[in-house]
């Protein structure tokens, strides 16, 4: 799970590739590299760290070329180092960049070593460069050499391939990893994601699984997995290059937190006619599918898993819809029992998370008849693998810590609760109430964003802390989990979430003045129980920060700081209460001076297992 970009043009591609890499850094950022062919030679530069370091190196020692490939890495095989950074080169002739994992790399490495190939890295990728070189011994065609090579590869790959003997050919292919071709005038580009290429084109071809393409300045030929020439449609992207700018915010994460009212409004738009949710919003045959399902199985990872947990409460509570949920990486390897009539719902911002995709395929293998993806990227693998789709329309999310994708997922899931719930126990009155509340959400979120300054001051209490506990009950337990995840991801403070009722079974032993306890307390049927849990912590000297519905009267307590949250209907409260937790994590991270948008060791889109 890395980012690749490449291009063939009648101009110098180096600045285009560098800009593309910067836009792909969310996929990994421990090292970066770039290679071009010029004067019948491969020119390559690689550097540890972010793309900026590579850019500085190239500024000091520049080169140019009309054909090139580049890569930003998130280490899987081999530590972050210059040697392990891509592009990888074989015998100064073949250069490649790779996103994915080659599972049989050890066997290939052994064979190639016996053939006399020298390895300069610990990566699984280098075998691909050697194999292409090897194949070129028996053909002059780079395309044919790559076609032969991929026959030997097991695992996932998106590749960009160059040969110094062919300055007018860039080969690309994909299996299990994303890849788009950007179509220009007399020029073509490749990238892991459209965002990388928006400064040069808005016209894209999305390669299908198993496709391989030969790009020259004036021609593009695509072969499908059966080696047949195919035409893939060119799609016009509505994204603008500045959709991925910071627009004056200090960090993408802050920008994305503030974009939530708009992203939610976009996600709701066009789904209702006369205040009635339309089944067709999920796909043309959605009504038929929803009529026949008996239960729901949710699969997701990370933040998306947390939105699924909230949905499970909603489905059961509001619709009496039986619902199971699994972390995708667990589901794919256990022996789940899939009941007849189960709708498999995957949730993913990127639509490329390897575990989520594999879990969906596993569910299908086990006989799941219908699948629905809730996703933010229209052309993603998950969307293409699913029968029904409900797009969140959050726009590009760049900050590694997910924010607007989460709240738009919750909105999309509430739409699912309505669509399926009304076929179970959801009353017309409740459906109307939810509809009205959803349309009020952008306004409520604007209101809660007003307490940003208060949260910024509060965050100072966390800067010196090493641990934090997050508590919630019911639908707000997953919100506490999401708050803890945000804090640990970007501030590196160890944070755990507990359902507040579980405190007495262990975590109470941890309570002291050094561990802040963050509690999410909307005004719902669990409030009185939660108040008792708060007392249990306070009585033991614990320091509590309680996000409390403004309409609740609370007794003064020196151990408890109250942050008032504007009153909202319980139906939508989880979507509102997560906002202050996002802001809290953000401000703590800024105070601690961490890399907010690109926290250490993480990546936004995890396309490897
Ligand atoms: C990574 C990201 C998380 C994200 C998770 C699932 O771990 O850092 O922010 O929640 O992947 O990603 P998805 O794209 O499937 O929602």
UniProtKB/TrEMBL annotation:
One of its GO terms (biological process) is protein N-linked glycosylation. Its EC number is 2.6.1.16. PROSITE patterns: GATASE_TYPE_2, SIS. One of its GO terms (molecular function) is glutamine-fructose-6-phosphate transaminase (isomerizing) activity. The keyword Glycosyltransferase does not apply. It is found in: Cytoplasm. Keywords: Aminotransferase, Cytoplasm, Glutamine amidotransferase, Repeat, Transferase. The active site is at residues 2, 604. Catalyzes the first step in hexosamine metabolism, converting fructose-6P into glucosamine-6P using glutamine as a nitrogen source. This is Glutamine--fructose-6-phosphate aminotransferase [isomerizing]. It comes from Methyloprofundus sedimenti. The gene is glmS.
């Amino acid at each position: 799970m890395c980012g690749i970009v490449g291009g063939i043009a009648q101009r110098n591609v180096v600045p285009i590739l560098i800009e593309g890499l910067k836009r792909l850094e969310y996929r990994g950022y421990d090292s970066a590299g770039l290679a071009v062919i010029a004067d019948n030679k491969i020119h390559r530069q690689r550097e540890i760290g972010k793309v900026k370091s590579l850019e500085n190196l190239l500024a000091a020692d520049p080169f140019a070329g009309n054909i090139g490939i580049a890569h930003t890495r998130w280490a899987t095989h081999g530590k972050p180092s210059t040697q392990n950074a891509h592009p990888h080169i074989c015998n100064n002739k073949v250069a490649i960049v790779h996103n994915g994992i080659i599972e049989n790399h050890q066997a290939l490495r052994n064979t190639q070593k016996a053939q006399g190939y020298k390895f300069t890295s610990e990566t699984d990728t280098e075998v691909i460069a050697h194999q292409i070189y090897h194949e070129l011994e028996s053909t002059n065609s780079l395309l044919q050499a790559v076609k032969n090579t991929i026959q030997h590869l097991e695992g996932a790959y998106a590749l960009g391939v160059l040969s110094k003997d062919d300055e007018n050919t860039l080969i690309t292919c994909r299996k299990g990893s994303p890849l788009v071709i950007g179509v220009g005038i007399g020029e073509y580009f490749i990238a892991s994601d459209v965002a990388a290429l928006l400064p040069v084109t808005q016209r894209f071809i999305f390669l299908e699984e198993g496709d391989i393409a030969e790009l020259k300045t004036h021609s593009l030929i695509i072969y499908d997995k059966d080696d047949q020439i195919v035409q893939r449609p060119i799609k016009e992207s509505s994204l603008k290059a500045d959709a991925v700018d910071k627009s004056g915010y200090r960090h993408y994460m802050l920008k994305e937190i503030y974009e939530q009212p708009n992203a939610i409004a976009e996600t709701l738009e066009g789904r209702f006619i006369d205040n009635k949710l339309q089944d067709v919003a999920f796909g043309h045959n959605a009504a038929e599918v929803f009529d026949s399902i008996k239960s729901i199985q949710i699969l997701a990872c990370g933040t998306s898993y947390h939105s699924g947990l909230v949905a499970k409460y909603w489905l059961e509570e509001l619709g009496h819809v039986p619902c199971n949920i699994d972390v995708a990486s667990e589901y794919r390897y256990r022996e789940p029992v899939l009941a007849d009539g189960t709708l498999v719902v995957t949730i993913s911002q990127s639509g490329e998370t390897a575990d989520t995709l594999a879990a969906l395929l596993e569910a299908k293998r086990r006989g799941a008849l219908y699948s629905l993806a809730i996703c933010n990227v229209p052309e993603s693998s998950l969307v293409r693998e699913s029968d029904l789709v409900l797009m969140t329309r959050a726009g590009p999310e760049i900050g590694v810590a997910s924010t607007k994708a989460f709240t738009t997922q919750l909105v999309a899931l509430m739409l699912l609760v309505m669509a399926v719930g009304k076929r179970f126990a959801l009353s017309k009155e409740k459906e109307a109430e939810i509809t009205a509340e959803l349309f009020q959400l952008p306004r409520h979120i604007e209101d809660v964003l007003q307490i940003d300054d208060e949260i910024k001051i509060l965050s100072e209490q966390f800067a010196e802390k090493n641990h934090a506990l997050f508590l919630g009950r019911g639908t707000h337990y997953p919100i506490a989990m999401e708050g803890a995840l945000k804090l640990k991801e970007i501030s590196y403070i160890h944070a755990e979430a507990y359902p507040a009722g579980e405190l007495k079974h262990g975590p109470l032993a941890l309570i002291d003045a050094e561990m802040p306890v963050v509690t999410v307390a909307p005004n719902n049927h669990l409030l009185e129980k939660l108040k008792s849990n708060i007392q249990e912590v306070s009585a033991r000297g614990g320091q509590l920060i309680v996000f409390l519905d403004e309409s609740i009267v609370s007794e003064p307590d020196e151990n408890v700081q109250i942050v008032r949250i504007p009153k909202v209907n319980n139906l939508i409260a989880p979507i509102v209460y997560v906002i202050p937790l996002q802001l809290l994590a953000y401000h703590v991270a800024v105070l601690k001076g961490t890399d907010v948008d690109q926290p250490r060791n993480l990546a936004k889109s995890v396309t490897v297992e």
